[in-house]
Amino acid sequence: MNRRRNIWISLIAALLSASLVAGLYQLQRIQMEREGTIAVVVPSRFISAGERLTTDMLTYKHIPESAWEPNMMVDAEAAQGKETVIPLGAGEPILDWKVGSYYLLPKPTESTFQIPKEYVRSISNGIRAGDKVLLYASGEGTPSRRLFGESIVVASVKSSGNVEIDNMDNPNLMSMADGDKEKMYASRREANGMIEYLNLNMTEEQWLELDGLCKDGKLKVVVAYSPESLNVDAVGGEGAGS
Fold it and tell me: Is 136 within 8 Å of 222 (Cβ atoms)?
């Protein structure tokens, strides 16, 4: 009986020893792999253009040092709160030019309103997020007129699939951030869908006036692209802190 017990004890001890050695080897291998890698910030899920990054959207991914680029973000806290300029895939290293700071946020006196589709007569196809637009009231038997003296900032322009309208190879917001008017113009030549939903940054007074004019269906809004959109020098100051 004692001999059989000793045999079982020896077998169990051998198995535990083998498991310990295998575990240590695995830990050493992981450590060696990580010593030749860099942890970069990546989305934990697909993120659409125009979304604000939060901590639950971000994680870290180890990539080989040879694959690392200087514009890859390595600090999740630095990415938190920024807005995506273009869509980001899950696990894709976030490059600093793919996110921006508050380009599309309303000013302290404004809110972002989605314009109901039944309020709109027409929208200029070249409009993109970050642009400025002019609004006109138009209706049968009523003279058309311009609404508001100033232009309105576009918060987002989306397709029926809730995807931001843009040229993915040449995003408008990236061109705005770079101050490149030629690329801004070029980005309007191609788009990934038809405009279905329009969100504008407006004051409460502006929205109430527009809503009051259009809710009975007699007047509708014509949304026109404003050349002020090319005034890229002021883009960085249009956010909430202005």
Answer: yes
Q: What's at 207, amino acid-wise?
A: W
CA–CA separation, 31 and 75 (whole Å): 21
Return the SS3 of 10.
helix
Strand stretches in the chain, DSSP E: 37-43, 58-64, 83-84, 99-100, 110-115, 120-123, 132-139, 142-158, 197-203, 220-225
Q: pLDDT of 11-23, one tens digit each?
A: 777 777 767 766 7
Of 119-123, 132-136, 197-201, 236-240, which range is least confident? 236-240
Handedness of CA 201, 203, 205, 208 (dihedral sign): positive
Tokens for 54?
């939060």
Could you give the CA distance from residue 222 to residue 104 in angstroms, rounded to a whole number?
21
Total residue length of the chain: 242
Using DSSP's 3-state secondary structure scheme, residue 98 falls into helix
pLDDT in tens, 122-169: 998 888 888 899 999 998 888 899 999 899 999 988 888 878 777 666
Which string of DSSP letters, residue by residue, matches 146-215? EEEEEEEEEEEEE-TTS-B-S-TTS-HHHHHHHT-HHHHHHHTS--SS---EEEEEEEHHHHHHHHHHHT
